[in-house]
Write a structure and sequence with these properties.
Belongs to the MetA family. GO terms for molecular function: homoserine O-succinyltransferase activity. It comes from Photobacterium atrarenae. Helices cover 31% and strands 23% of the residues. It is α/β, with parallel strands linked by helices and 313 residues long. Strands 1, 2, 3, 4, 5, 6, 7, 8, 9, 10, 11 and 12 form a twelve-stranded mixed sheet that branches. Helix 1 crosses helix 3.
Length: 313
């Protein structure tokens, strides 16, 4: 089944060119099924690029998914046309009275910024507190995972001395957990962050199920027992060239970045990178939609209640 997004959204033509089934709003309205309602809070500067990446992963499901785009505030941005934001993005006040099956909170380039110095930190707190009573399952990605751990477990910000950048091997820790169904015992995933997610630290200070880790990158995937909060510390949504563009950006800013690990063939930036994480990225989002959202959410979202959720797989 397809995702349903506005016909004029730039991602529509891109995804259709990739042979991804994107359903028109008119056709979706004629189907007698209830699509999953997913809200995407996009915190990245290049919003069109990021929304396309996430929509691509959400499309790999037999479920019909109705995606709405959410912005954190109404400040102008130099990376996304104001017309695009005004046309396709919702303000929080427009959605706070509704319930959603799923919420995705993207990463943000705030790795070296203290939480209290983030301009929209209060808004993030408001939305995450709102999600407890209005969203079946929330998926926190990269910086959002760090923010979620702070707000849900009061974990202080932990920062690495050097930026973690590259594609790393990970090991799964519970092959029977729904989020890991179909995963290989080891898999690759990209990271681009300063945040430190130590398995020992999370195990000591939270009750999370730690599902996948890397010797170099730490925790990659973790979830609460009821699967209502899922934390992904890397970037499974990244395109093949995203890390490359970040590397060139950092070079251009005089930061002398390390070459992303296990990314360029021969560790040579002159060689075109190869995507080695795409299949597990799709599988992760498919599992989240199925086992954390669809299998848990009430049919009638108007009757949303935390009592609806069980801990059974």
């Amino acid at each position: 089944m397809p995702i349903k997004i506005p016909d004029q959204l730039p991602a529509t033509d891109i995804l259709r060119s990739e042979n991804i089934f994107v359903m028109s709003e008119a056709r979706a309205a004629s189907q007698e099924i209830r699509p999953l309602k997913v809200l995407l809070l996009n915190l990245m500067p290049k919003k069109i690029e990021t929304e396309t990446q996430f929509l691509r992963l959400l499309s790999n499901s037999p479920l019909q998914v109705d995606v709405e785009l959410l912005r954190i505030d109404n400040r102008p941005t130099k990376n996304t046309p104001t017309e695009h934001l005004d046309t396709f993005y919702r303000q929080f006040d427009m959605v706070k009275g509704r319930n959603f099956d799923g919420l995705i909170v993207t990463g943000a380039p705030l790795g070296l910024v203290q939480f209290e110095d983030v301009l929209y930190w209060e808004e993030i707190q408001t939305i995450m507190n709102w999600a407890k009573a209005h969203v079946t399952s929330t998926l926190f990605v990269c910086w959002a995972a760090q923010a979620g751990l702070k707000l849900l477990y009061d974990l202080p910000k932990r920062t690495r001395k050097e930026k973690l950048s590259g594609v790393y091997y990970h090991q799964i820790h519970d092959c029977h957990h729904p989020m890991l169904r179909g995963f290989d015992d080891t898999f690759l995933a990209p990271h681009s962050r300063y945040a430190d997610f130590s398995p020992e630290y999370l195990a000591e200070h939270t009750d999370l199920d730690i599902l996948a880790t890397s010797e170099q990158a730490g925790v990659y995937l973790a979830a609460t027992k009821d699967k209502r909060n899922v934390f992904v510390t890397g970037h499974p949504e990244y395109d093949v060239n995203t890390l490359h563009h970040e590397y060139l950006r950092d070079l251009g800013e005089g930061m002398e970045p390390n070459i992303p690990v296990n990314y360029y063939p021969g560790d040579n930036p002159e060689n075109p990178p190869v995507a080695s994480w795409r299949s597990h990225g799709h599988l992760l989002f498919s599992n989240w939609l199925n086992y954390c959202v669809y299998q848990q959410t009430p049919y009638d979202l108007e009757h949303f209640s935390e009592d609806n959720f069980t801990r059974d797989d």
